[in-house]
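agent> step 3/5: call structure_predict on target 'Histidine triad nucleotide-binding protein' (Candidatus Halomonas stercoripullorum).
agent> reason: downstream docking stage needs a structural representation; sequence fetched in step 2, passing through unchanged.
tool.input:
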Amino acid sequence: MSQQECLFCKIIKREIPGEIVYEDDQVLAFNDIAPQAPTHILVIPKTHITTLNDIEESQQALVGRLTYIAAKLAKERGFAEDGYRVVMNCNEQGGQTVYHIHLHLMGGRHFTWPAG
Ligand code: 5GP
Ligand code: ZN
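tool.output (status=ok):
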């Protein structure tokens, strides 16, 4: 899929709607359309990166920033101390369905490992 057709690039460009909860020059965060927890936010880089396998060395800080913003949102929403889950899926066996990297931030319920 080309970057022009990428769903999350379209949300960044406001070509399709998203419930945006955070934005800066590098990062966008918005509510997942099919939440798996009371809070389920997707944190994405504004630069199109297709999968985790495509991260370049120069993008390490940008990808690190996704985790920093996730923790900031968790603190602001009051569940940081209780705990939460962050997930990044890669490719078909990893369960990736949207090919623009995204960090899932899920909070507000108890999680078990590895299922659920
Ligand atoms: P993945 O399976 O690739 O790790 O996660 C993709 C996530 O994107 C899923 O949790 C799915 O619910 C979410 N998603 C898919 N399409 C849309 C959309 O159009 N808007 C929003 N906000 N989330 C979407
Ligand atoms: Zn994209």
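agent> step 4/5: record observation. DSSP finds three helices and five strands in the chain.
agent> proceeding.
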